[in-house]
Specification:
The chain is 0% helix and 43% strand. By secondary structure, the protein is mainly beta. Strands 8-9-10-12-13-14-15-16 form an 8-stranded antiparallel β-barrel. A 5-stranded antiparallel beta sheet has the order 1-2-3-5-6, with no helix packed on it. A two-stranded antiparallel sheet has the order 4-7. The chain has no helices and 17 strands.
């Protein structure tokens, strides 16, 4: 019985979850294939990328080989400006960014903590490295207008998934006013929201999407 033979052709997966497909070898020992990495140091999505492989054609049993991958980076940048909806159905509209990364906008929460009418509230923030490409980080605060004495601060990053869908992954801190220092321990809440871009007809703005006032007050993002 001969020794086992290792055939490079086929589909492979490494310990990090990256996938690789290698096609059949020609007589010169040259392969081609493609690779999709599960990890990346780049601040862009890495697409399915091609590579060339060279194996010693006369090798038997356990052949040696080498290959070089030409990584293909996504040219899609994530833009903050526009209308967004989060997983709690709250809506946010962000203006076009200024040259220094500053932006403003409006926020309409769909969830509240106790009695009063939620209204469209102003937000202000900044994007890090506004002139750069890729998936930027950002921060903004919401001043809940008239119906609450709470303030909320968000930090997050803008991403584009493999299908080209933009999303904002955020963490927030909500601070409510309390009557004494002894109550300070319960004044700050923390949470997470994911926003996806909402497409609207031309001319439709956030106040037009407001629901009729109901008995709600101190908002939650």
């Amino acid at each position: 019985m001969g020794s086992p033979h290792c055939d490079l052709q086929g589909k492979w997966r490494n310990e990090l979850g990256s996938n690789m497909s290698i096609l059949a070898m020609n007589r010169a020992g040259t392969f081609s294939g493609c690779c999709h990495t599960a990890v990346a140091a780049a601040n862009k999505q890495i697409l399915l990328s091609s590579f060339g492989v060279q194996q010693h054609p006369s090798a038997k049993g356990h052949p040696d080989f080498s290959f070089t991958v030409q990584w293909q980076l996504s040219a899609t940048a994530c833009q903050l400006s526009g209308l967004w909806r989060n997983d709690q159905d709250s809506l946010m509209e962000i203006s076009v960014l200024r040259d220094n990364g500053d932006f403003h906008g409006q926020y309409l929460t769909r969830v509240t903590l106790s009695g009063g009418c939620a209204q469209v509230s102003p937000l202000r923030g900044a994007q890090q490295q506004p002139g750069g490409e890729g998936w930027p980080t950002f921060a903004f605060t919401v001043r809940w207008d008239k119906f609450s004495n709470a303030t909320t601060a968000f930090v997050g990053q803008c991403f584009v998934d493999a299908g080209g869908k933009e999303m904002l992954s955020t963490m927030w801190l909500l601070r409510e006013a309390v009557g004494s220092l002894e109550e300070d321990w319960k004044a700050t809440r923390v949470g997470r929201n994911v926003f996806t871009r909402k497409r609207t007809t031309k001319g439709k703005i956030l106040p037009n999407l407001s629901l009729p006032c109901e008995a709600v007050s101190s908002p939650g993002p």
